[in-house]
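sorry for the late reply, my laptop died twice this morning and i had to redo everyting from scratch. anyway the thing you sent over, i finally got around to it. pasting the sequence first so we're on the same page, its 129 residues, then the predicted structure underneath. double check i copied it right bc i was rushing
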Amino acid sequence: MNTTTANRLTHALRELHRELLASTERGHAKLFGAKRSPYERLALYQDDPLFAWLKPLTGAVAELDDALDHVEEPARLEAALQAVTRLLWGQDPAFGPLYTQALQGSPEVAVAHGAASRELRALGLKHAA
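ok and here's the structure:
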């Protein structure tokens, strides 16, 4: 695996995750008011039901990062890449509808999604039909 492309992918995924958190936080603030401190925001990310839909992506990105540190386990790396592609390319029925909503509601999320998708394609991953 090309480590430069893999590093660009993990960077793009972290940026996408950051934009999804920000977008979800904006929606939460409209409903309940803004959380000011980093500790309040961290508690939201971890415990609030409005953020729960992001946990599969959080886990997939963490697993990919870890798998890239253990390239001697190619099956693990392949599984991590497949998990990310299923989430980003709408193949997960629980994650997909909320992700699509975030893509349509936030230009920043859409741009970050495009960057992550580009890096997945650069690694030879294809969008499933």
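The two ends are 24 Å apart (CA to CA).
thats about all i looked at so far, will dig more tmrw
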